[in-house]
Design brief:
15 helices; five-stranded mixed beta sheet; alpha/beta; Rossmann fold; 3 domains; 390 residues; globular; binds iron/sulfur cluster; 14 strands; 37% helix; five-stranded parallel beta sheet
Length: 390
């Protein structure tokens, strides 16, 4: 693979200050008001036939999901793409780290396209490789690095996955984080886990699934010297949690759970493990997006639910199950803003560019990074038992 340096800039920052999206679309983006967008997307997809495969993450907008050949979580989508080798182009309607994972897991001839390069993930961006390498050095200085197994959530950049591959660690999803942690603790005597980027998934899994106490967990703040921790704290900790979180799932609060229960004692609270620990311990059920979907599908008619995950998915579940009472677990509307950057104009632009023979926004992970990240992904695939859906 060749290395392509793609800009991934925060909104309104970097080279492109005038762009509303931070990264200017390098072509003629159709206006969102174009009444022919649906017809144009349909025609472009038909013209491309089996050479294109469109992936739609569960958190994507309806206007985009309608064109997805398959929907799912990030890991399922990457595997679905790898199972379609005849598709030369994988158009990933999701965020940047997902497109990277798809590029790593698909064949070299398959090109992964992200319709809007500004579709990043704030959580993945909270763990930068240079910060993680500094933390690793600090763990050596504290005399504990030899005990530490690094585990990264799927929602991380390719170079963080590669760091784990290089240093004896693995990737996990929200479905198999417990198995990944058990694996990690079995790797070394007196093992500790350095878990990134989502402190909540790490804490919830360690405490609720593996039986650790909250005191066994410390939080590494990459903006403080030595992570804001003493060497003694590092020596005593079992879980060293990176100070990262999801901007969507981090918004849910225990107060709203209490309010909803007071209004409807029969309500079931169903949340994603990226939610804060205070929320998760008040919930009836906790699980990945796939678990949330399956739980609602299996729920009896008339049952009442409040769901703590991304709003596009909750709205689609409510629309698909009018016989059940389904509410969003927050007072305010809260979409994932970066997921929402993939809209119909960008999808039309990406597909029509391919029809014209122009490969746009190709995500191409540098070869050595891809090799090492694949090692960490394969260690996850080799974990016993569970499915690997996030
Ligand atoms: S929902 Fe959270 S973890 Fe998922 S892409 Fe958005 S910010 Fe990242």
């Amino acid at each position: 693979m060749t290395t392509v340096e793609l800009p991934l800039l925060p909104l309104g920052k970097g080279k492109d200050l005038s762009s509303e999206r931070g990264v200017e679309c390098p072509g003629d983006l159709p206006p969102a008001s174009d009444p022919d967008l649906v017809a144009r997307a349909k025609a472009a997809k038909e013209a491309l036939g089996r050479s294109v495969f469109v992936l739609g993450h569960h958190y994507q907008r309806d206007e985009v999901i309608q064109f997805a050949d398959v929907t799912g979580d990030s890991f399922k989508l990457a595997r679905d793409a790898a199972a379609r080798p005849e598709a030369e182009y994988i158009v990933f309607c999701g965020v940047h780290f997902m497109a990277e994972s798809a590029d790593i897991l698909t064949a070299p001839n398959q090109k992964v396209i992200l319709p809007d390069l500004a579709a990043g993930c704030s959580m993945a961006d909270m763990a930068r490789l240079s910060q993680v390498e500094d933390a690793w050095d600090a763990l050596a200085d504290a005399g504990v690095q030899d005990q530490v197994v690094p585990i990264t959530y799927m929602n991380s950049t390719a170079d963080i996955k590669a760091f784990c591959g290089k240093n004896g660690g693995a990737v996990c999803t929200s479905s198999n984080a417990d198995v990944a942690l058990e694996w990690a603790f079995a790797q070394k005597p007196d093992a500790k886990v350095l878990f990134f980027p989502d402190q909540h998934l790490g804490r919830n899994t360690a405490v609720l699934k593996l039986g650790f106490s909250l005191d066994d967990c410390v939080v590494w703040n990459p903006f403080k010297p030595n992570g804001g921790l003493t060497d003694e704290q590092l020596r005593d900790a079992k879980m060293i949690l990176w100070k990262g979180h999801c901007s969507v799932h981090g918004k849910f609060s225990p107060e709203v759970v209490d309010e909803l229960r007071a209004k409807d004692p029969d309500i079931n609270i169903l949340v994603h493990p990226e939610c804060k620990h205070e929320v998760v311990i008040k919930a009836d059920l906790v699980g990945s997006t796939e678990f949330i979907i399956k739980t609602i599908e299996a729920a009896p008619a008339g049952s009442s639910w409040a769901i703590g995950t991304e709003l596009n998915l909750v709205k689609r579940l409510a629309d698909a199950h009018p016989d059940k009472k389904i509410a969003f677990l927050d007072r305010t509307v809260c979409f994932c803003s970066t997921m929402n950057r993939i809209d119909l104009p960008h999808l039309v632009w990406a597909l029509e560019s391919l029809v014209e023979g122009n490969e746009v926004n190709v995500i191409d992970v540098e070869a050595e990074t891809a090799r090492l990240a694949d090692i960490a992904l394969q260690r996850m695939l080799d974990l016993p038992g569970k499915s690997h859906k996030d």
